[in-house]
C-alpha cells in the first residue's frame, strides 16, 4: 500500500485505457486499493433492484481506476506533470509541479 500521489479534488489526465486522454476531477481516493475515482471517466452500468427510495433500472456510475494510470494536471501551467514533494524549513510538506515548480496544495 503505497501512498497515492493524487488527492481528492485534483484535476487529472488519464494516461491509458479506454478513456485515455480524458481529464477529470478526483471524486475520491482509495489508498488501500491504490485506486482513484475520477469524474466522467471509466463509466460502468450498474443494475439495481427496486427499493423503498430507489427505482429499479440501469444506472451509470464511475468505477475506480488504478492511480498509476493518471497524472496530475498543474492548475497554473495547465499541463500534465509529475509531482515533487518539498519540505519547508518548519518541517511541513507540500506537493509541487515538476515543470513550473508551483505548489499544488493550498
UniProtKB/TrEMBL annotation:
SMART domains (UniProt xref): KOW (SM00739)
Organism encoding this protein: Dethiobacter alkaliphilus AHT 1
Entry's Gene Ontology molecular function annotations: rRNA binding; structural constituent of ribosome
NCBIfam families tied to this protein: rplX_bact
Segments forming domain KOW: 5-32
InterPro entries: KOW, Rib_uL2_dom2, Ribosomal_uL24, Ribosomal_uL24_C, Ribosomal_uL24_CS, Ribosomal_uL24_KOW, Translation_prot_SH3-like_sf
Keywords attached to this entry: Ribonucleoprotein, Ribosomal protein, RNA-binding, rRNA-binding
UniProt-listed GO biological process terms: translation
Subunit structure: Part of the 50S ribosomal subunit.
Superkingdom assignment: Bacteria
PANTHER family: MITOCHONDRIAL RIBOSOMAL PROTEIN L24
Protein name: Large ribosomal subunit protein uL24
Similarity annotation: Belongs to the universal ribosomal protein uL24 family.
GO cellular component: ribonucleoprotein complex; ribosome
Function statement: One of the proteins that surrounds the polypeptide exit tunnel on the outside of the subunit.
Amino acid at each position: 500500500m503505497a501512498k497515492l500521489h493524487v488527492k481528492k479534488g485534483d484535476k487529472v489526465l488519464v494516461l491509458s485505457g479506454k478513456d485515455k486522454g480524458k481529464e477529470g476531477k478526483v471524486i475520491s481516493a482509495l489508498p488501500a486499493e491504490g485506486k482513484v475515482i475520477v469524474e466522467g471517466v471509466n463509466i460502468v452500468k450498474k443494475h439495481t433492484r427496486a427499493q423503498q427510495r430507489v427505482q429499479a433500472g440501469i444506472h451509470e456510475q464511475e468505477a475506480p481506476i488504478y492511480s498509476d494510470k493518471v497524472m496530475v494536471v498543474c492548475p497554473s501551467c495547465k499541463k500534465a506533470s509529475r509531482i515533487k514533494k518539498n519540505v519547508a524549513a518548519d518541517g511541513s510538506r507540500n506537493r509541487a509541479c515538476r515543470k513550473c515548480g508551483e505548489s499544488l496544495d493550498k
